[in-house]
Specification:
The protein is mainly alpha-helical. It is 46% helix and 3% strand.
């Protein structure tokens, strides 16, 4: 059974409410002004007079409080101890200045190495297509052929070894009416900002890994309540997604969005909050029901994570995030059998050094890229590679992308965020409407709002309601590109095979199974009367384009 933040929070809140004492009032509010009524002699009631005399003496009226001047937030200040203060709030995450990933240890030209077998089959357009959809955000026109020419190692290295910050290519985003995006202020614009990055970035693997780790360390703005915190966290993931997992875990632990989401700022030595300590083991690093930790470990590691805090300023919200040594439990803690005066950095290290962490890391990463854990012998080799490299992400990632297991395995359903970005990349379009903010939700994956701390459930992306959302996404991607009047009047005559070839070219000639091709050809040949008109042929072309994009073959990779 998955453990979320609800049970722990509910228990804590209930206990806090049950022990809270209500203060007795010392004054009373003034009653509303009413016209005095003069009682007539006939309405005189001697019993009422006696009841009024027995009443208790009224409390004095409350005085009006003077309004205080607003308090200006102070800059973060370290309060001592061995811990660094939390970083200052990041600047506005402008699409024109994205963060660069952490530098890799090897130069981009260095040969790729792998401790497992490498794929030795033909690396052609179909293999390049799978690589660009699974390890990127979908191909741009011409990229499939270009990556196929690079060969297996060259194509993988082009993705996994970016240099410097990404460049955004294509039309700037807008809200559909020509207006700029305001991701911190306007509803849904955070999703549009994120979608724009996935569409225009020339580092598609960085964007894909950012999405993977957003699902891995699932944090929702529904609880955080700050689009700025959420987008800053996405930038953190972009910078750390190819480097050390330990560095990534440390950065996420003290990230403002995570400190709010899993109650890190409420975790004090006098009242430890176990939410983050539990999830860092169960969901992020060790896995549940594997014997990796005990309830005692949860309690002890929660003490190690104490010390972070923030201030609430009216009209501003949570601000001045910092480490406060006075709130940290400096006593000895025993975690996984190791005793010491552990702090939050020690806690992250103890989790990553745990003997069962490597298998969880390899399993989760391969699950996102291949759909499941590797065979036992492959998994053991990847775990050794991960530990020997000092918990580096990129070597394991490259080994998976070079493996025959990646190219010969079954197809995977494209995540909705990848499907949307990939369609826009293929069609050379940008974010041109605010509709993507709710369409992504309809399809089942609205970035910044995973359903819970366990992330998205991929098995539900093709249920009846989410499949309908995917249909809507295809229609929106094709909007303004469909054949309409006056093109209807001049659309040339073409056979069913020619119509299908034209529709496939519209989507960059994606892979389609023999069964899908046969079904589309049959429909193209029978959907119109024999004496067809130009507008009917244009309608058939629109239909074939839409049917290709909603086919099981296009929805998977």
């Amino acid at each position: 059974m998955k453990s979320g933040i609800g049970s722990a929070d509910d228990t804590f809140v209930a206990r806090r409410k049950s022990t809270r004492k209500k203060k007795k009032p010392t004054c009373r509010k003034p009653p509303p002004k009413r016209k005095k009524k003069v009682a007539s002699r006939s309405s005189y009631d001697p019993l009422a007079v006696k009841r009024r005399k027995r009443r208790k003496k009224k409390l004095p009226l409350c005085k009006k409080k003077k309004k205080k001047a607003p308090v200006k937030p102070k800059p973060p200040v370290a309060t001592g101890g061995t811990h660094p203060a939390a970083p200052l709030p990041a600047s506005f995450p402008s699409p024109d200045s994205p963060p660069a990933p952490d530098p890799v240890a090897d130069p981009p030209a260095a040969p790729l190495g792998t401790p497992i077998a490498a794929y030795t089959g033909t690396f052609g357009p179909r293999q390049a297509e799978r690589l660009l959809w699974r390890a990127g955000m979908g191909p741009r026109p011409g990229e499939i052929e270009a990556f196929a020419k690079l060969g297996l190692e060259g194509a993988v290295a082009r993705l996994t070894r970016p240099s410097g910050a990404s460049t955004l290519v294509g039309p700037a985003p807008h809200d559909g009416e020509g207006g700029a995006l305001y991701p911190y202020q306007e509803w849904g614009h955070d999703v549009l900002w994120w979608t724009d990055r996935t569409v225009r970035s020339d580092q598609p693997l960085v964007e894909r890994m950012t999405l993977i780790f957003h699902d891995w360390f699932a944090t929702s703005n529904d609880a955080v309540g700050s689009s700025q915190f959420m987008l800053e966290q996405s930038n953190l993931l972009r910078g750390k997604c190819l480097g050390s997992f330990l560095d990534l875990l440390k950065a996420v632990t003290v990230d403002r969005a995570m400190l709010v989401f899993l109650n890190g700022i409420d975790n004090t030595k006098n009242r430890p909050n176990e939410n983050y300590g539990r999830e860092v083991m169960e969901l992020f690093a060790l896995g549940a029901d594997r014997g990796a930790y005990t309830e005692a470990d949860v309690r002890e590691i929660a003490r190690a994570f104490t010390g972070w805090r923030a201030d609430w300023v009216e009209g501003v919200g949570l601000t001045n995030f910092r480490y406060d040594a006075n709130r940290h439990d400096t006593g000895n803690k025993t975690v996984f059998g190791h005793t010491g005066a552990w702090n939050w950095e020690d806690a992250c290290r103890l989790v990553v050094e745990h003997p069962l962490h490597a298998s969880v890391f390899v399993g989760k990463l391969s699950g996102h890229l291949v759909g499941g854990p590797p065979p036992a012998d492959v998994g053991a080799a990847l775990e050794k590679l991960y530990v020997d490299s000092g918990w580096q992400i990129r070597p394991v990632l490259e080994a998976i992308l070079l493996s025959p297991w990646f190219y010969e395995g079954p197809r995977l359903v494209k995540p909705p965020a990848v499907l949307i970005a990939g369609m826009l990349r293929l069609l050379g379009r940008g974010v041109e409407t605010s509709a993507w903010s709710w369409l992504s939700d309809e399809a089942g994956q609205r970035v910044t709002s995973p359903p819970d701390v366990a992330g998205w459930d991929e098995s539900r992306w093709l249920d009846s309601s989410k499949l309908r959302g995917r249909f809507y996404c295809v229609g929106q991607a094709m909007a303004e590109l469909s054949l309409t009047y006056p093109a209807w009047d001049t659309y040339p005559a073409e056979s069913a095979a020619q119509a299908l070839a034209s529709a496939r070219a519209f989507w960059g000639d994606p892979w389609l199974s023999d069964e899908t091709v046969a079904a589309l050809l049959d429909h193209a040949a029978t959907c119109m009367p024999a004496a067809n008109q130009p507008y009917q042929r244009a309608q058939r072309q629109n239909l074939l384009r839409h049917m290709i994009a909603i086919s099981p073959d296009f929805q998977t990779s």
